[in-house]
Amino acid sequence: MSSRDLVLIALFAALVAVLGMIPPVTIGFLPVPITAQSMGVMLAGCILGARRGALAFLLLILMVAIGLPVLSGGRGGLAILAGPTAGYIFGWVAGAFVTGLLAERMVRESQNGPRQILGFALAALVGGIGVVYLFGTLWLAYAKGIALPAVLIGQLPFLAGDLLKVAIAALAARSVMVGYPLLPQRG
Question: How far apart are CA 12 and CA 81, in angstroms?
Fold first, then answer.
């Protein structure tokens, strides 16, 4: 791994921490707030690729584990990594990896702009929503002792915001791909 890779991984971990400074939107009947940090999964995967994107989130989890307040609402510490939202946090690693893997396979510089945006959007949808929801939903159901169908229904309020994050991430990834030609190797 090059020093450039390490800098990009650290940069994206910092970016996700900054996204955590945007105040979360809480919905009273759900224990999981709507945060901007989940968009970081999509951005890291699409821009950095599978390996570096996942490593950025492993670094973020390490920062959380040592108590740094890098999660939304200024949260951090080991208790967060064992609480009901821990599945989403650990799902970020897998989500960034899957998003990056799909983006690496579906998006090429030789494609036209709309096709690139669609490829990034599909990658972000599958990895940034599908994979993260899978981890988060399963853990939330287990940790809270709630039936899985009830947790799945509880995910519905989050879909609209997450679809907006997919669109933003796809447009941002396309802009980075065009504006920063030194980053074509997303691996």
Answer: 20
Task: State the pTM of this model.
Answer: 0.90
Helix 50-65 with 86-106: angle, nearest 10 deg: 160
Tens of pLDDT, residues 143-166: 999 999 999 998 888 888 899 999
User: What radius of gyration do the chain's Cα atoms show?
Assistant: 16
Among 3.40.50.720, 1.10.1760.20, 3.90.470.10, 1.20.272.10, what is the CATH number of 3-179?
1.10.1760.20
> Of the candidates 59, 79, 51, which has an alpha carbon nearest to the alpha carbon of residue 12?
59
Distances (CA, A) of 7 to 41, 66, 115, 166: 17, 20, 29, 25
Cα separation of 84 and 86, whole Å?
6
CA 32 – CA 151 distance, rounded (Å): 11
Identify any residues that bridge with 71 across adjacent strands, giving them in sequence order. 75
Q: What is the dihedral of CA 128, 131, 133, 136, to 10 degrees?
A: -120
CA distance 96 to 123: 10
